[in-house]
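Lecture 7 notes: from sequence to structure.
We start with the chain below.
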Amino acid sequence: MQNQTIQRLRSSKITALALAVSLIAPIALTATSAPGSAKISHSYQTLYIPRAYTPNPPAGATDDYHCTMVSPKVTQDLMITGNQFHPGNREVHHAIMYLITPDAAKNAIALNRGGKGWSCFGETSIGSGMDALSASKWLTAWAPTKHKGLNSTPAGTGMLLPKGSVVVMQIHYNTLLGKKADRSRLVIQTTPLKHSGLKPLVIKQLPAPPDVPCAPGVTGPLCDRNAALANTQKRFGQDAVNFVNMLERVCGRDPASPPAANSTTCTWPVWQSGKLLTVAGHEHLTGRKFSLVLNPGTPGAKTLLNVKNFNFDDQGAIALKHAQTLKAGDKLQVNCTWDPKLRQQLPQLKKQVPRFVTWGAGSSDEMCLAILGVTAN
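Predicted structure tokens for the same chain:
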């Protein structure tokens, strides 16, 4: 799942900067209300993909990332207090909804080509250079989950939707199970920002690099890491390989020879204080375990989320029982474990060529990603 933390790689320098500053970003706009203000009223909108889309992966690939702009009725600053994404077919692997700022909306309109959308491996392709870091931000995301109904933001929070902004739905389609036309939709629950008293909830991401060798006894040309990366470049472009190498460096590994294992870890610094309210772990089909640890290796170390039996079909965000205060200087450690033997067992993967698995956009690749819901103190 490429994301705001993993900005589309215009250059390694820009992407490294995005990773370094994105953890607990300052929140510029906050809501105010007088004591004893009236109960918040909500409105609902259903945002459909303008036109049905049939997945069309690049030659030799089974994954397609497609973006479509939708225009919610935003005539005043709003707060999204609930959302529910409805995948239109089983080929939908995951979806990210991006907030496109008013000054970048015209770029989204141009790319949308009359509602047909555009190919968008990585990020939304809106903006260039440093501007790409602020033009599109995660608004919400969906991955397979058993949760039904509206996903409400934590009490007292909402996701800011400024007047004049638009939304881009980035949908990752995987065609291992077919190629059917899709018209996914997003339902949002909103309330006016003014006098709401809600704190803006911001979604942040912390990745760790997978370097998973082929299972014992399994061989093939792509079981060599360099050959697997060449295949990644063929499917998704050189930017995808650049990101793999950059993530290895940021997490303290040698990109030319990182440790190969069925598990990984990466520790990220907290740059600015805030409160952590929700956590989700994201892996792909061979994921087995996920955890997020605050200040690992210290007397005050605390496990914030520990998924001992990762279920690809149930990746919903977990609301912490008590908000966790994060201070500048704290550290957050992301940990993932995979079972490479599943590649020979799962219907979606067993017909695929065996491969050394690195970070990648495809369902047959892997990811290790913590998705955080935070507010400013």
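Points to note: The two ends are 28 Å apart (CA to CA). The domain at 43-200 is CATH 2.60.120.310 (Jelly Rolls).
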